[in-house]
Design brief:
Elements (H helix, E strand, L loop, with lengths): L2 E5 L5 H18 L10 H13 L3 E8 L2 E12 L8 E10 L8 H13 L17 H9 L23
Antiparallel strand pairs: 1-2, 2-3, 3-4
The protein binds coenzyme A.
Length: about 170
């Protein structure tokens, strides 16, 4: 399988919408607290146009036999105001179609995104949230050199009135 990674372009819109929808379905199947908000294809295209115009964002696609097999999307964002360095790279979405996994597409997408992020002055690291129950994603990011950092906790409001602990 030969994987070709390139910057996404507006004509990738329909294939990206399909892959993004698959990623959202994957995430909600991993943890039912993930409830995807309804987003129409038209709304997705409008958002994608804005993303393409943002200098601090980048999206790359992986092609196999001329077909979109995966994508990565992320950007440069500000760190908390009381913590240095001021900015870091973050990845919002990464997805590879199940039939194309474990053949280096995820690694190649991450490599392309990393080279793009490295062109930003003052940006030297990544930070991003990952679903705690997604063991595949955890193993992938570990293989890419990531380690746990700040943990995001979750609880229903009822946890605060003590009922859940009685
Ligand atoms: C995570 C994901 C992007 C990995 O894509 P991929 O193309 O299969 O990844 P690669 O083939 O480049 O894998 C690189 C290395 O990561 C590790 N790895 C990847 N997936 C793994 C898994 N399911 N279990 C264990 N290790 C894994 C391996 O070390 C692998 O190297 P190897 O195949 O030589 O052993 C893909 O499984 C996916 O789309 N999952 C669903 C969505 C998701 O979890 N996205 C990331 C969270 S934002």
């Amino acid at each position: 399988m030969t994987v070709r990674v390139r910057p996404a372009q507006p004509s990738d819109g329909p294939a990206l919408f399909a892959a993004w929808s698959n990623l959202r379905a994957h995430n909600s199947s991993i943890d039912r607290r993930i409830i995807p908000a309804p987003v129409s294809e038209q709304e997705f295209f409008e958002g994608l146009t804005e993303v393409f115009q943002r200098r601090a964002s980048a999206t790359f696609v992986a092609e196999v036999d001329g077909r979109l097999a995966g994508f990565i999307s992320g950007g440069i964002e500000a760190s908390q105001p009381d913590r240095l360095p001021e900015r870091h790279a973050t990845i919002g979405y990464l997805y590879v179609e199940p039939s194309c996994r474990r053949q280096g597409a995820g690694r190649d997408l991450f490599g392309a995104f990393t080279r793009w992020a490295a062109s930003y002055e003052g940006v030297a690291h990544f930070e991003m949230p990952v679903l705690a129950l997604d063991t595949g994603a955890e193993q992938f990011w570990k293989a890419m050199g990531f380690t746990p950092f700040i943990q995001r906790l979750w609880a229903p409001l009822s946890a605060g009135d003590g009922r859940d602990r009685e």
